[in-house]
Specification:
Strand order of the largest sheet: 2-3-4-1-5
Largest sheet: 5 strands, parallel
Low-confidence stretches: none
Number of helices: 13
Order of helices and strands: HEHEHEHEEHHHHHHHEHEH
Mean pLDDT: 86
Radius of gyration: 20 Å
Helix content: 40-55%
Number of strands: 7
């Protein structure tokens, strides 16, 4: 077994944009896949600006949030996993209308904050939305083109170890823990726990689904479909569920940033006739086969 020794960048590239939006006194919503570094980024923002951190998953914090027992002298409030609170949008709107002029607010969550409204009033016009992706090659190497059409004219030369960093991205994926651990064994253990927590915690908390065992089986079955046209009919036959059920479960996994789908490229008329899609993982490290995994990495970078 070959071990790698990656070193994580000091800050994520998205941090400067988030801090700029916090200065505008708008609500800042930060979503993205579970364990891609949102909490770490939020704590780095607190370390720079000062502030208080509250997680809905911590019982003491949950009590403070319900009672709105928040320190009004803090320059920043960070609310983690707030979308798990029933009626969180209405709660957040009231809090922002009362304190938004004095306190900056950053809300993070591992589900799509623009989808899981769970009732309540709209936050339209009150927030900026960001998505934190897993690490990309350009973020690891700090080598970013000035514009999408300037890929051949990078502002500075790639670092000497850029080939090894790309190899590590293909091998371990872009999530911080397996990537920077640099160990095949630790990456495999992390992925085993990640899939179980995604189904047993996130889906259980946010979706009223039965047959969680079969949802977990679907999640384990999907890596084999990467690189091929996605057949929902084949999946529903394997799982012995209806077509609509399998389709709904896939949509749930998309909302939780586990997977994403890519439609055929072409004019609207072509898309209307040719409805086949391909499915990819945000954690491309769980895809078997180097060719399919590299294809997944490229598509995630393009997205």
């Amino acid at each position: 077994m070959v071990e790698s020794s990656n070193i994580a960048p000091a800050t994520r590239r998205l941090q400067s944009a988030i801090e700029e939006d916090l200065d505008s006194r708008k609500l800042v919503l930060l979503s993205g896949p579970r364990q891609c570094g949102k909490t770490t980024l939020a704590r780095q923002v607190i370390a720079r600006r000062g502030g208080e951190y509250f997680s809905w998953d911590v019982p003491a914090h949950r009590k403070a949030l319900r009672e709105q027992a928040l320190p009004t002298t803090a320059p920043l409030w960070v609310f983690d996993e707030l979308h798990k609170m029933r009626g969180w949008r209405n709660w957040l709107k009231g809090l922002y209308d009362m304190h938004g002029a004095r306190v900056a607010m950053l809300v993070t969550g591992s589900a799509r904050l623009d989808v899981y409204s769970l009732g309540g009033d709209s936050l339209q016009g009150r927030y900026f939305l960001h998505r934190l992706n897993p690490f990309s090659f350009s973020e690891l190497t700090d080598c970013v083109p000035a514009a999408p059409d300037a890929l051949v004219a990078l502002p500075k030369a790639p670092p000497s170890d850029s080939a090894r960093r790309l190899e590590d991205l293909v091998r371990f994926g872009g999530f911080p823990e397996p990537l920077f651990a640099g160990s095949d064994r630790r990456a495999a253990r992390w992925r085993l726990g990640y899939g179980a927590r995604l189904v047993r915690e996130d889906i259980r908390d946010l979706e009223n689904l039965r047959d969680l065992d079969k949802v977990e089986l679907l999640f384990d079955r999907l890596p084999a479909t990467v690189g091929s046209v996605l057949s929902i009919n084949a999946l529903r036959e394997d799982l012995e569920v209806s077509f609509d059920t399998a389709k709904h479960w896939l949509a749930v996994l998309e909302r939780l940033y586990a997977v994403f789908r890519v439609a055929p490229i072409g004019p609207p008329r072509t898309k209307a006739v040719k409805k086949e899609q391909k499915l990819y993982f945000w954690d491309w490290g769980r895809v078997e086969g180097e060719a399919a995994r590299f294809e997944n990495l490229v598509l995630a970078h393009l997205v």
